[in-house]
Amino acid sequence: MSDLKVTANPGSLDVIVTRTFHAPREKVFRAFTDPALIVQWWGGPGELTTQIDVMEPRPGGRWRFVENDNQGNIHAFHGVYHSVAAPECIVYTFEYEGFPGSVAMETIRLEERDGSTYMMDQLVFQTLEARDGMVASGMEEGTRAGLDRLEAVVARL
Amino acid sequence: MDSDTLSLTFAALADPTRRAILERLKLGDATVNELAAPFAMSLPAVSKHLKVLENAGLITRGREAQWRPSRLDAAPLKEAFDWLEHYRSAWEARYRRLDALLDAMDDEQHP
């Protein structure tokens, strides 16, 4: 089991994903910013195939990913890099093309911890509707907002 | 479990009073009066919450008209939890691929 944690508290505008990678921070940073590396892990066999339309990881650079879920459904996402500070931080905007006009801001921070790398990925939406709408509209199935709520309740039952 | 059922479960769990009611029912069946006791809330308000929980299949209610004790039904929670695990495992699968890639990458700095 990894230490993966997905947090989406009720009434909050953000979704936070944290996880430790047992690799040096420089490597993890490269895996997040090199298009040739991203395609190797973002989509997987039997799940999604990810096509990188544009990826310019530098301040002001654009990115656009197109995901195909192998059932004929295509989901595209795009945005602009705000800052790319190797090896610790990447900040970019994020817009799901199925829900246009709603722009989220994503910050990926990488911290060194005893030779491993701790990732904190925060996605902040403009409205609760946007957060829940984005989540519900197909990037992943279901309501991410409900997850931690549900988990907290189930854990006590 | 279809997404409509999941939506009902999540919507029912979204309210702190309803979560508290479920926690109370974990200890045993209870009447509306007993469930209302810890809350500064009218009986009709509590009944409304019970209705939501009942519609989501999270509780069942007794037939005795006067008492109608509520009982926790954990089945939808279990199903939702299984779904959640599946969902999390999809995230985890992606990060496992990244783990494998990180292992395979050479340690040299690329320009």
What fraction, in percent, of the residue positions of chain B are helical? 55-70%
Mean pLDDT of chain B: 82
- Total beta-strand segments of chain B: 2
Q: What does the radius of gyration of chain A come to? A: 16 Å
Strand order of the largest sheet of chain A: 1-2-8-7-6-5-4-3
Strand content of chain A: 35-45%
Q: How is the main sheet of chain A built?
A: 8 strands, antiparallel
Number of helices of chain B: 5
Give the oligomeric state of the chains in this entry, treating copies of one chain as homo and distinct chains as hetero: heterodimer
Helix-strand sequence of chain A: EEHHEEEEEEHH
- State the strand order across the main sheet of chain B: 1-2
How far is the first residue's CA from the last residue's CA of chain B?
49 Å
Give the C-alpha Rg of chain B: 21 Å
What brief labels describe this structure?
heterodimer, A: 157 residues, alpha+beta, eight-stranded antiparallel sheet, 4 helices, 8 strands, 41% strand, B: 111 residues, mainly alpha, two-stranded antiparallel sheet, 5 helices, elongated
